[in-house]
Write a structure and sequence with these properties.
With 146 residues, this protein is α/β, with parallel strands linked by helices. It has a single domain (2-143), classed as Sugar-phosphate isomerase, RpiB/LacA/LacB (Ribose 5-phosphate Isomerase B, Chain: A, 3-Layer(aba) Sandwich). Helix content is 47%, strand content 16%. The chain has a 5-stranded parallel β-sheet, sandwiched between helices. Helix 1 links the parallel strand 1 (2-7) and strand 2.
Amino acid sequence: MKIAIGCDHGALALKNKLVSHLEKRGFEVKDFGTYTLDSCDYPDFAGAAAKAVASGECSRGIVLCTTGIGVSIAANKVKGIRCALLSDLMSARLTREHNDTNMMAIGAAVVGEGLALEIVDTWLDTEFSHNERHQRRIDKVMALER
């Protein structure tokens, strides 16, 4: 599975930890930046990662900033993206089982490194339930883009 990842300066350290963790798990990672601590604009990096997921270049995406809010909003502006802001394991599991999210966001100042790694693993390892009621609801959400 190929994972898109992107962050702003507020989450660079956590992004770098996640990239290393994902590669150790055998995932291919496409890093959309940022690569320095210089102040930058999160929509540039979240948008690029989201476009890679929406186009099919990457299977899923992870975006990060200080709170995770900005990158999740930016990613969700890209047609075809369902990005969940995650800070706990139950939400990580249920957003995959019920919402079939293709992107997730984390706030580097909200979630510590250890929990972030667990959230990412839970999210990546959980499959969509394919339950009819969940698919019906996803279809209704996605129809809002039209």
